[in-house]
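Budget justification, computational time. The allocation requested in the original proposal was used primarily to generate structure tokens for proteins on the priority list. As evidence of use, we reproduce two of the resulting records. The first is shown immediately below.
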Amino acid sequence: MVLPAVPVSQSPESKFREYLATRPKSQRLTRPQRELIQFIFAQHDHFDVNQLIRDLDRADLRISRPTVYRTLAKLVDAGLLRRIEVNSRTVYEHDYGYPQHEHLVCEVCGKMIEFQSETIQNAIREVCTSHFFQQSGHTLVVRGVCQECNRARSAKRRLDMI
């Protein structure tokens, strides 16, 4: 399920440039950072650092590994990307210009399924209100086995019984 984009007033590049300017030690947007932002926001996929670096190489963008790591940390801090811990893997996804949503993660194949639930959103709001807690965001990851992997496991079990 592809979730609809949320209207935003600035491009990710402009928002990041603004973030850099407000740092205690003002920083400028470098060419590698700009190329990285454009590359990341040109598609909407969950990715880890190694996958991103492989994709950058395939796209013939030469951005150093340290620059990728530093820029990802800044993009998270700027509110443009969200970091999700899935088992021992750190995955990134768009946060800016994308609606609040949850994830189902298959423990067999690693597939991530995004979904929205008004019921979950309401429950979180209710819990926060009852504890006088002001939330700044949340990440919900439900682990399990996807439909395709369940089918494959069922077929294997049937074959094992023969």
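The second record produced under the same allocation is shown here.
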Amino acid sequence: MVHVNYLAVLVAAFAVFVLGWLWYSPFLFYKPWMRLRGMDPVAAMAGAKMPGGKLLIELARCLVLAYVIARFMALLGVSSWMGAVHFGFFLWIGFPVILLTGSVLWENIPWKVAAIHAGDWLVKTLVIPIIVSVWH
């Protein structure tokens, strides 16, 4: 039986939810992300309000991601923070980077938009395993 620490999963999910919000906020990449998507960040911010339903879905996505990563870590026996960093980095290369590269190649997504998303995914795939590994 695989043991997953559900409290660590909840904490990790909430952490990456907050970090994702920060990543796409005006403090970090909101303006370039909006411009690269052909939108005026100032105009978009003027009429912006927090979309509650989308935020709940995003939190659910973070919970699923944290649980799946924690389960993989348990199955693979990843328990040290350094092992978690290696695991998270290879997870990032193997999935988000490969998927985003396909979007750039085949869907004409600008590479700079994909790079912003890839950075967000790097944070997620590093923070979740680190929190899960150090939480005993």
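A brief technical remark on that second record: Residues 6-134 form one domain.
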